[in-house]
User: Which sequence fits this backbone?
């Protein structure tokens, strides 16, 4: 087996350059790398389908490499068309991805880590702790596995599943390159969103790279004390440093930031909370998404009623912010990240 084809480095997850290097080492002409990339990054289940590759090369690939680093373990279908996938990795770990169909597009929400070390109190993945980072191949293959099941590639990709994507920075950048590249999945950079809990130094690094993705920040409280209670990361990077990093990010990338605000009844949905949020976000190029919290089993946060969510939205609007309420999808299949994996492991 070649050195680059370890568990971490399945065929899916290789850049065109890396495939060229592999073909060179195997004594193949360089155009084979283009052919291989074209097959790898479309929904193709087996090497046997790669009809323009010689049989001997397909045999060598089958013998010496891993094709797909993920496989589908279970699928849950929601009444609204949302599908939640439990995927197994070759070391037996489990991750989740969610497919969300809409009228004019389709979105896949993917995971970046097995578990997560950030410990947000409203999150089922946070409650499971950190296991390991995903490889770029395991990240990209989530999109391909769902595309194989659905029969088409989703138009949008959001890194909002299990894990903190910015804590797995190298694999994140490599997977974005493959998802976006014309030789890869060819999904537009504007159709890719990366969500973070607020790792300030990495937000700054990402801003300097100037990728053109959409950055989404899980804020959930506009007061340091309150935010630290639900998001331990805030003790390291408080709101002042986070906001400074976000202003700099907008200056560096000219991209509007999405602010995620999970509304928790009686915790962060008062008039005072709204006024603090308006003050904090004033002057930042951003759009606020209000998300009625999805209560987790054994969790202490409660979902507010819709009229309370709408009241909070109008307070923010009156304060000059752009705000939407995120429509819940897949509520009947527990589509929030970490819930399915948690249940599977309990059974
Ligand atoms: S919300 Fe995101 S960052 Fe926080 S624990 Fe869950 S997966 Fe990790």
Assistant:
């Amino acid at each position: 087996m070649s050195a680059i084809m370890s568990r971490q480095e399945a065929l899916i997850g290789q850049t065109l350059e890396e495939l060229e290097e592999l073909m060179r080492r195997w004594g193949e002409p360089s155009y084979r790398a283009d052919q291989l990339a074209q097959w790898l990054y479309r929904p193709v289940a087996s090497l046997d389908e790669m009809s323009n590759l010689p049989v001997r090369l397909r045999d060598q690939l089958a013998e010496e490499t891993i094709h797909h680093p993920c496989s589908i373990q279970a699928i849950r279908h929601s009444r609204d068309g949302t599908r939640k996938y439990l995927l197994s990795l070759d070391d037996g770990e489990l991750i989740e991805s969610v497919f969300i169909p809409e009228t004019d597009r389709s979105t896949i929400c993917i995971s970046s880590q097995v578990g997560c070390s950030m410990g947000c109190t409203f999150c089922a993945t946070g409650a499971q702790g950190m296991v390991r980072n995903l490889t770029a191949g395991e990240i990209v293959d989530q999109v391909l596995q769902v595309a194989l099941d659905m029969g088409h590639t989703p138009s949008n990709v959001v890194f909002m599943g299990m894990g903190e994507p910015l804590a797995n920075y190298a694999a994140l950048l490599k997977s974005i390159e493959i998802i976006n590249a014309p030789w890869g999945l060819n999904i537009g950079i504007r159709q890719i969103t990366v969500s973070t809990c607020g790792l300030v130094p990495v937000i700054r690094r990402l801003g300097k790279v100037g990728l053109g993705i959409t950055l989404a920040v899980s804020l959930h409280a506009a007061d340091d004390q309150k935010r630290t209670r639900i998001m331990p990361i805030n003790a390291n990077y408080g709101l002042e440093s986070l906001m400074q990093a976000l202003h700099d990010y907008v200056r560096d990338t000219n991209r509007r930031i999405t602010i995620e605000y999970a509304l928790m009844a009686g915790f962060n949905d008062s008039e005072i909370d709204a006024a603090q949020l308006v003050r904090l976000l004033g002057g930042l190029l951003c759009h606020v998404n209000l998300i009625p919290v999805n209560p987790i089993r054994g969790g202490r946060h409660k979902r507010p009623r819709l009229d309370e969510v709408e009241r909070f939205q109008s307070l923010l609007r009156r304060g000059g912010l752009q705000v939407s309420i995120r429509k819940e999808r897949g509520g009947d299949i527990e589509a929030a990240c970490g819930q399915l994996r948690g249940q599977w492991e309990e059974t």
